[in-house]
Amino acid sequence: MIDTLPVELIAKIIGELDLDDVIRMSQLSRRLKLVASDAVLNVWRLPIMRTLRLNQYETALKNLSVHMSVPRHNWVDILAMANAPYILFESTLPNLKEAEWEEAFKMRFLPSWARRKRDKTWKATFLSVLHQTWHRSCTSCTTNEAWTKYIVLNRNGSANLLEVSSRNFNPVLILNDMRMQQNLLHLQIRARLVVQLADVRILALGTLDRPLSPLTVNPNAKVFLHPLDMDNDDDTTTAPIPPHLQMYSRLKYPLPAITHINYPFYSPGGADKRWIMPEEVGLEWVGGLMVVAQIIGQGQGPDVASANAWPPLQDHDLVIGPGRQQYMSLTWEDLWTIAPWLEEKISKRIDGQGLGI
């Protein structure tokens, strides 16, 4: 009887099924197989996205590539969102076009990491970078990245791109040196999770205080963590953006984890802690704000369990503890991608130490 329905309605019905049921449906009849194979209708996308977001894909997706009725482009989303060990060691990868591997790379990784491509194909680059990142997430190895870059937003409106030996990189110690020079050591270090990606978290570390003088306030720190008029609480990725926010769009390259899926807008669920909390009323960011890219350690991934955990990671919990000791480089290109509204706010960009005079 279902064979008599319009193909659009059949596709909509199939799209509401679990992934395993979609596989079975695609094998029931010639017409259902044709509907399942249609790249425009793409009945696979919604079941695949639901499976990825529930973090229950190891079995369902493991051999999905052997089913020829699955449009290959669906694997771009899988490569962008699935965890590294599954992609590297468990899944059977399909034959994809070079452009699809390139898109998967841009959706998963920070833009500056594309410098590692050199003469390799996008497939080789994707798998190489993914393996290196996974390797560093579970070891202290720094062979592939001897120096780690980070950015400091200064209270005078300028910003510095700095680097430290990866083996000795410790953002808390670096920030303490900065705070000592700025006479802020008596105040507590504050850390905020700006956005979480598939393999790294972008963190901001600084100091909150009730300043006696506006000269100590870091204006770009608040702009970076809570841009003006972006406290949109839509909880779906398809909700329309209000007219006054049309200049912004949800981040797609790279694609945020489910915990920050609406970034740069607010993502409900408790993990998005950029927004001003009741205990922070009246406080201002003072001194320098350090921005780093932290590799997500094993067991710290963006699954549903971690998204619903309470309390969410904040302050020292973000930088102290197992799986929180490894960092990747963050450059100007990455910062403008994560926070494009900040680019026009920075009065001077300085590569290295100094005031840029």
TrEMBL record:
It holds the Pfam family F-box. It comes from the Eukaryota. Residues 1-47 form the F-box domain. This is F-box domain-containing protein. The lineage of its organism: Eukaryota, Fungi, Dikarya, Basidiomycota, Agaricomycotina.
